[in-house]
Design a protein that fits this description.
single chain; 315 residues; alpha/beta; Rossmann fold; 7-stranded parallel beta sheet; two-stranded parallel ribbon; 13 strands; 37% helix; glycoprotein; UXS-like; golgi apparatus; decarboxylase; membrane
Amino acid sequence: MATCLVTGGAGFLGSHLCDELLRRGHRVICVDNLETGSLHNIEHIRVPEFEFRQLDIIEPYFVDEPVDFVYHLASPASPIDYLRLPLHTLKVGSHGTHHTLGLAKKHRARFLIASTSEVYGDPQVHPQQESYWGHVNPIGPRGVYDEAKRYAEALTMAYHKQQGVDTAIMRIFNTYGARMRAHDGRAIPTFMRQALQDLPITVFGDGSQTRSFCFVSDLIDGMIRLAESGEHFPVNIGNPDEFTLLELAHAVVDVTGSASDIVFEALPTDDPKQRRPDITRAKELLGWEPKVALREGLQRTLDQAGRDALVGHAR
């Protein structure tokens, strides 16, 4: 049984990761300051192999038992959160990553950082390959998140090259599933919340901008495969099936049986026009590719989360 430390473990992705690691027979230490995570996401976990610690990783922290894997997922991740917490977002990417890498070094643990497709910015290369360096506006509204993750990647590689830490870098593309926060501002939770209340579905611009949506179980499988591999360079994990946001809106209406109309609003500043992963490296290095198609994943989300949670009425 391996011991796994998960930062951001009470968040959407972190809680699913905790579940899957426990299912595979590991011990899990879950760390979260609950700024954007929630105890509701982990309250169902009632096993002795799971431990929750409420702390903020921008300050030094320690674990007084052996640790085999460190999954560093902590960070505000939605525009609503990082626009509300710009300095904290930057500090999690810098101070938090530094402290967590130091912990991994001390324990000689395998360290995986959950980076993001946002490091590519508004990409000039399509689909995005890991060798592409990106097109990011460092002073735009998304800059605090984009640059925090770019810095965290650089710090991770520096610890690997200079300090010999066994590191991995995972670039996550849009992911969805149960435990998304209904009001976090991202497309799928917003569309589902609006559709389930028969409210107008708000699409930015003309809806022609594209995204690629990965169901959470596929994403977590790819994450664990990367952590258990020997790869050190960035690997894209996401679903290469590409949809316009207008196509997504229609799919959500169909799955939910909604009577919602679709309305259009002004496009936000620096909103990426295209987002699609090239997953060649994930296929070759990890034998990984997603299995859940968009409509199936939307239906699973609806079934697993329930209407109340998706409209923001969860207890």
